[in-house]
Design a protein that fits this description.
single chain, 2 domains, Endonuclease, Chain A, 434 Repressor (Amino-terminal Domain)
Length: 275
């Protein structure tokens, strides 16, 4: 087994596999020896450690007992079966942290890179209360968001172009205090020398080129990639023939959206409670 192939950021299943292998190594057991203690085959252990097979509740519970880890593996196993992050998103985050330029378009909520911790926590807790994620997964989302934002503080910082649909800034998330701080965050973002902030107003109507959130990254070598999500997974596109039309459409979106000054004026209107 090539240990270098075990990347915990690849997926929740990969993270479980790395944790299992680390615990096995601490006990000095081979895969076959752990398999004998758990009542599985060595091939089964290998598949789980490499993230090719998700752990069943029975497997995780037995592993906790054999490895003396309380219920830690059982809880982590739940996050594999009900992941906090869509497949494909951890890979995107790795590229985002190295990008020279980030172009984003968001619908419905403030995009993660611009969220305050309080706003992000309210959203995560909302998903938790609906039973969509666990408390541990909610915490994982907020923690990852902080790491993504910290990566933008590198030198030199990336250029970030943010176009938010008007639906992002109008809903009151978490009450007036949370929204006031979130609006302040958007204003602070717009004032940075490496950013452009715009709002795509409802009045754009059918001229809006995108119906779903979209991210376009320009890497230091000028290669382009895009990221979009369905309800089930994220899609990272590297084919230039596919990404270039999206970039052209994004430029059209910027041309149709409000200027930065008008976008900030709209936020000020919302802050004052005027329509």
């Amino acid at each position: 087994m090539n240990r270098k192939e075990l990347d915990p950021d690849r997926s929740p299943a990969a993270r479980f596999g790395v944790r299992l292998r680390t615990l096995r190594d601490e006990h000095g057991w081979t895969q076959e020896e752990l398999a004998d203690r758990l009542g599985y085959s060595g091939t089964h252990i290998s598949a789980i450690e490499n993230g090719r097979r998700p752990p069943t509740p029975r497997f995780a519970t037995r592993a906790d007992k054999v490895l003396g880890t309380g219920d830690r593996l059982e809880r982590q196993g739940r996050s594999v079966r009900q992941p906090a992050l869509l497949d494909g998103f951890p890979e995107y985050v790795g590229h985002e942290g190295r990008a020279a330029e980030i172009r984003l378009y968001e619908v419905g909520v403030i995009p993660g890179l611009l969220q305050t911790p309080e706003y992000a926590t309210v959203l995560a807790e909302g998903h938790m209360k609906r039973g969509a994620i666990t408390a541990e997964q909610a915490e994982e989302r907020v923690t990852l968001l902080a790491k993504r934002q910290a990566a933008l503080l590198r030198t030199p910082p990336p250029h970030i172009f943010a176009v938010l649909d008007e639906s992002c800034i109008r809903p009151s998330i978490g009450g007036p205090g949370v929204m006031d701080a979130q609006w302040d965050r958007l204003v602070d973002f717009a004032e940075l020398p490496n950013t452009v902030f715009q709002v795509a107003p409802f009045s754009m109507g059918e001229r809006r080129p995108f119906d779903l959130p979209l991210y376009i990254l320009t890497q230091p070598d000028r290669k382009l990639m895009s990221y979009a999500e369905s309800a089930q997974r994220g899609y990272l596109e590297r084919d230039m023939n596919s990404v270039l039309p999206l970039l052209a459409a994004y430029h059209q979106l910027q041309a149709e959206a409000l200027s930065q000054a008008s976008s900030l004026a709209l936020i000020e209107q919302l802050r004052k409670g005027t329509p």
